[in-house]
Amino acid sequence: MSKVSIVRCPDYSDAKKAIAEAVDLVGGFEEIISMGDRVLLKPNVLAARPPEAAATTHPVVVSAMCELVLAAGGVPVVGDGAGISRPGATAKALKASGIEEAARKAGAEVVNFETAGYTKVKVPDPLQFPELYLAKPVLEADVVISLPKLKTHELTYYTGAVKNFFGTLPLNSRKEAHFLGKRDLFGEAVADIYSVIKPRFAVMDGVLGMEGNGPSHGKPINSGVVLASPNCVALDIIAAEMIGFDPLKIPTTAGALKKGFGNHCPLVVGTPLKEVKMKFKPSSGGISTAPAFLVRNFGKYFTIRPRINQEKCIRCGACHLNCSPQAVEKLADGSFRINEEKCILCYCCRELCPNDAVDMKKSLMAKVLTSEH
Ligand code: SF4
Ligand code: SF4
Fold first, then answer.
1. Ligand 2 atom closest to residue 328's alpha carbon, by position in its atom list
2. Cα 319 to ligand 2 centre (Å)
3. Alpha-carbon distance values, 100 to 19, 93, 94 (Å)
C-alpha cells in the first residue's frame, strides 16, 4: 500500500526539518537514489510571481530538497517550463519565484525546459496521446521527483504532484490537451504524460497553499503542512481530501488511476489527516466550463509563432539543427523557413539564434490577451 506522510510546518523557517521528517517517514531516498544519479526536481514554476503569492513552489522547499538529494549521493537538477504564454516566460519565472537562486546556492544545476529542447516519445497504453513531446532534461534524468504546490485549479479543481508534469510539455502540446475541452479528457492527457515520466517521489509544499481562483490568481492560505510519498497519485488523493475536495473527482487522479497508477486508499503516516483537514474555497474559473466547441474553435486562434527574419538571418543553421520536430526546413537556396504544421511552439529556435533573427508573430487573440500590440 502506498504511504503518504503529513508533517506539520507552520512556516518556511521550519520547512527544511519538516521535509526531512516527511521524507524519512515514507522510507527516505535509499531505495530511490543511487550514487551519482541525476535527480530532476520538478517544482511548480508557473509564472513570474514572488514566493508569497503562493503560485509557485517555495524556494526553501526547493533548496531543502537539493540538499537531501546531495546527501543521498545524487546530483540535483532543478527544472520547469512556466505556463508558457510567450517566449522567455520560464526564465522570468525561475528568477521571480526565487527558485533559480535557491537551487544554485544549494548546489543544483538549473534547467529551463523552454530552452533545453523536447524529445518525441511514445506513450504506453495511451488514453489521449499516443505520442508526446516532453522536455529533454526530464527524459534524461535517472530519477524524477515532483515538488508541487498545494493549490486549487480552475480546470482540474486541485493541482498537485501528477498535474505538475504538465509543465514538461511545449506550448503546442499544452494547447492540444486544453482543446480536448473536457476535464476528464484533460486528466487522461496528463495521465499519459505521467505514464512516460514515471516519477519516483513527491514532496508537496503545503505550507502556504492557494485557495479560490488557482492556480495563479487565488488567495494564499496558511495550510501549514508538508506531504511526501513515493507515489504521486497517493499524495494527490490525500492532499485533495485534506483541503475538502473529493479526491476521486480530481481529473488527473482519475486519469492516473485509470492507467493503473496508485490505489484508492493510501496509508497516512505522521500527523493524522483529520487533524489537518481544512476547507479550501474552490476555483470559480475553468476552461472547460465554456462549451467544448468554443474552446476547440477559438482557442486555436491564440498563437505566437516564430518566423525567420530573412534580412537578419546569417544562415548559421543553429535553428535547423536544434529544432526537435524538424520544423525548420532548409531550402534549396540555403535559406531557412519554419513549417507551421510541424512547429510545436517550443521557442528554442528564438533562444538559440545568435543574430536575433527569429521574430515572434502574434495572432490577434494573442495580442489582445498578452496586452502587447
Ligand atoms: S521552429 Fe522553433 S519554435 Fe517551432 S518547433 Fe522548431 S525550434 Fe520550436
Ligand atoms: S539560428 Fe538564426 S541566424 Fe541561424 S539560421 Fe536560424 S534564424 Fe538564421
1. 6
2. 6
3. 19, 9, 5
pLDDT digits (tens, 9 = 90+) for 134-144: 999 999 999 99
Quote the pTM value. 0.84
Of 258, 289, 320, which closes a domain? 289
- Residue with the three cell numbers 486544453: 178
Task: DSSP letter for 282, please.
Answer: P
From 133, 131, 125, 166, select the one nearest 258 (Cα to Cα): 125
Residue with cell 496528463: 190
The CATH number of whichever domain residue 363 belongs to comes to 3.30.70.20
- State the ligand closest to the CA atom of 344: 1
Q: Give the range of the structural domain holding residue 318, as residue numbers without chain letter.
A: 301-370
Domain-located, residue 296:
no
pLDDT digits (tens, 9 = 90+) for 235-250: 999 999 999 999 999 9
H helix intervals, 82-231: 89-96, 99-105, 113-116, 136-140, 171-179, 183-197
Tell me which residue has its CA closest to atom 6 in ligand 1: 323
CATH of the domain at 178: 3.40.50.11440
84 Cα–ligand 2 center, Å = 22
Quick check: bond before 215 cis, omega within 30? yes
- Whether residue 150 is contained in a domain is answered as yes
pLDDT the model gives residue 286: 45
132 CA distance to ligand 1 centroid (A)? 15
Q: For a pocket test of ligand 2, which of 321, 335, 358 has the largest count of ligand atoms closer than 8 A to its C-beta?
A: 358
H or E element in which residue 297 lies? helix 292-299
Atom of ligand 1 nearest to the CA of 328: 1
Beta strand spans in 57-156 (E):
75-80, 109-112, 118-122, 131-135, 143-147, 149-153
pLDDT at 292 exceeding the cut of 60: no
Mutate to test the pocket of ligand 1, among 346, 350, 356, 360 (most ligand atoms within 8 A of CB): 346
Question: How far does the centroid of ligand 1 lie from the alpha carbon of residue 348, in Å?
Answer: 6
